[in-house]
UniProtKB/TrEMBL annotation:
SUPFAM superfamilies: S-adenosyl-L-methionine-dependent methyltransferases. Transmembrane segments: none annotated. The keyword Hydrolase does not apply. This is Methyltransferase family protein.
Length: 250
């Protein structure tokens, strides 16, 4: 099973990207959502890193995630702050809501977890169909550079008496399918002894800027625009790490 965010992966994510940690995106999304009073959806909500600040700002946000482990962190974060939120276990490919949203948010390249091109196009169409007329999709992509750097890395986190490690080795790059596959080994150590470990094959797809713009148009979106590194109004340029797209349902 790939991209599953199981127990250790979810704990590492919580340590590395705790609620409220911003990469420039929290402030960006809050600014872009000014004036939005209707419901907002965050697919792949994870541990609530972005969701919680949006809720605290008074926005009406719902979320879903395929990982129950990640949702447990999100629920705990909301409960500890007395925030009421509707969360559910759903996937990109099959999520469904009766209501229509004023905005759908997909930060930090989560859409790139969908590695099949046709499946990704179908998800974009599902986003479009879940927006109210005039509603906006705001979505981040990691640039291609980040996919091809650092084929091997080791990272560590301390949590009390626990040491968690993540060893990442890229094992495949498919330039035709525009995908990378990385072997992720998570380890939990205590007092020098290995307590638990997980191995996951983590797959991602990269997109060209023009390519993704055309994909949004093919899904029915209008007014497609892109900016680089959370600088609204500035077109993407060489050296940007994040490309953010905005598009509307007519």
């Amino acid at each position: 099973m790939q991209n599953r965010y199981a127990t250790l992966a979810a704990r590492v994510y919580e340590l590395d990207k705790p609620v409220g940690r911003s990469f420039g995106d929290v402030e960006f999304y809050l600014e872009r959502l000014k004036g939005v009073s209707g419901p907002i959806l965050e697919p792949a909500v994870g541990n609530g890193r972005l969701l919680v600040p949006l809720l605290e700002a008074g926005l009406d946000v719902k979320g879903f995630d395929a990982s129950e482990e990640m949702l447990s962190y999100c629920r705990a974060a909301c409960a500890s702050r007395s925030l009421s939120v509707q969360l559910s276990a759903q996937t990109f490919e099959a999520f469904s809501y009766d209501e229509r949203f004023e905005a759908i948010l997909v930060p930090l390249g989560s859409i790139q977890l969908i590695t099949d091109h046709e499946a990704a196009l179908a998800v974009l169409k599902r986003f479009h169909d879940h927006l109210a007329p005039g509603g906006r999709l705001i979505l981040d992509l990691d640039t291609i550079d980040g996919f091809l750097d650092a084929p091997h890395s080791v990272r560590t986190w301390k949590a009390g008496d626990d040491l968690l490690t993540l060893t990442a080795d890229r094992i495949d790059t498919d330039y035709v399918a525009q995908t990378t596959t990385t072997s992720l080994r998570y380890e939990h150590w205590r007092a020098g002894k290995l307590v638990d470990s997980e191995i996951d094959l983590f797959c991602l797809r990269w997109w060209g800027v023009a390519e993704f713009g055309m994909a949004l148009q093919a899904a029915g979106f209008t007014g497609v625009a892109a900016c680089g590194d959370y600088q609204h109004g500035r077109k993407p340029q060489k050296g940007d790490g994040i490309i953010t797209f905005e598009a509307r349902r007519a």
